[in-house]
Amino acid sequence: MVDVNSLVDVKNGTQAKRIFWDADIYKLELEQIFGRCWLFLTHDSIIPNVGDFTVTFMGEDEVVVVRQRDGSVKAFLNYCTHRGARVVNAEAGNARGFTCTYHGWAFGLDGSLESVPFEKEVYGNVLKKDTLGMKEVRVESYKGFWYGNFDQKASSLADYLGDYRWFLDIWMEGTGGAELIGPPARSILKCNWKTPVENFVGDAYHVGWTHAASLKALGGPLGVLAGNQTLPPEGAGVQITSRHGHGVGILFNAGPALMAGEEGAMAAKWYAENQPKVAKHLSEAQAKYYGSHFNASIFPNNSYLWGTNTFKVWHPRGPNQIEVFTWAIVEKNMPQELKDAVRRSMLRTFGTAGMLESDDSDNMESMTNLNRGPHIAAGVLNSQMGLGNEHEDPDSGNIIGPSAIGETSYRGFYRAYQEFLKAKDWDELRANDGKWKNELLNR
């Protein structure tokens, strides 16, 4: 049995090293976190037409997401209700329905079982087709981004995102919406799913050291950080964490910082021209962040970099392996020339073979595998940077750490992680809504 209280010390900002490799903890995560949190599935831009579908995962369960004839979106577990074989074998495409390749059972776009070969001859009247459709998964959308949830009693997606939507709206809505460029690149990493999530949720501390050689090669404004020669100046950024562990680290006015030359100039011009529009459409406070660089994660396993414009899901494949799905993010109203430049920049940096992606992967794998050693495993993981200096953000309502480099968002992520592992259901989670800020602020 897992002693959840021993895994995270919120007050002192530490975590047990077991969380990166223990099989019992991983099993509990699949049940308590992936079994009832909102998990990213797809975006409207990936399945725009009736019959468009894409196959993805929720935890270790394979899911097919389909655009319906009425324009809505549905998701189903991707198995045949006859003998459990996979129904949809393609990663994505367009279809009028789906047929299992094992025995030919055919399902409609709505998941209903439409036909069974030789039904009358071999089944007679015993088969109740209306009960044998593909199992549907609850789905909801925020600004065109579709998420699924296995728990019918979970709070709505909007409530789950909560006050963190204040930051999402800046790039998801500020200039007319965002979209993903697919299909996703897919790769395997030999690490625990939490190691990349915590890296993306707000870790600016590693940038100058881990990425020193890459920053020198890429050039651009962030090149000055290479080799930890200097820290970002005071007031250069902030760290944010929210109710359910979503977090972001923000470096002000550094959105196109890894886009050098003409591409960087084109992106900087776009941000400058659109910042007043964001202020008018959203608020002056939100416009202050537009054009900045965001490194962020939506709990539990969806991360993005806005500015570097990569969008990722870290699908667990056991306690020490993940499959990574990677898309480029663009703003819908960007000119095509800028969209192309953004995608090229993303591929150079955080694509499957990207320079910065490769740097990070080495660290994520060592964090997972080294911590299984009996002597190394005896210690704890430290996330105390900035501890005690946070306060409530008056604009967004989230908890804010007043520095570009800190671990506020780490602590918020693992506070939520422990809460989900402990809570028996969503009623208990909702009952804690008034307590989370006090926990992080040690009040």
* Main sheet: strand order: 13-19-18-17-16-15-14-22-21
Q: Which assembly state applies to the chains in this document?
A: single chain
User: Roughly what is the average pLDDT, rounded to an integer?
Assistant: 94
Number of helices: 14
The total count of strands amounts to 22
Low-confidence stretches: none
C-alpha end-to-end distance: 31 Å
Protein structure class:
alpha+beta
Provide the gyration radius in Å.
22 Å
Principal-axes geometry comes out as globular
% residues in beta strands: 25-35%
Largest sheet: 9 strands, antiparallel
Question: Percent range for helical residues?
Answer: 25-40%
Structural features, described:
This protein is an alpha+beta fold. Helices cover 29% and strands 25% of the residues. The chain has 14 helices and 22 strands. The chain has helices spanning 23-32, 119-123, 157-161, 165-172, 194-200, 207-210, 212-218, 261-281, 284-287, 336-350, 355-370, 408-422, 426-431, 436-441, and strands at residues 8-9, 14-16, 39-43, 52-58, 61-67, 73-77, 92-94, 97-99, 106-108, 113-115, 136-142, 145-149, 178-189, 237-241, 247-251, 293-298, 302-306, 310-316, 322-331, 380-382, 391-392, 399-401. The strands form 4 sheets. Strands 13-19-18-17-16-15-14-22-21 form a 9-stranded antiparallel β-sheet. A hairpin with a 4-residue loop joins β9 (106-108) and β10. The protein is globular. The two termini are 31 Å apart. 46% of the residues are buried. The model has no long low-confidence stretch (mean pLDDT 94).
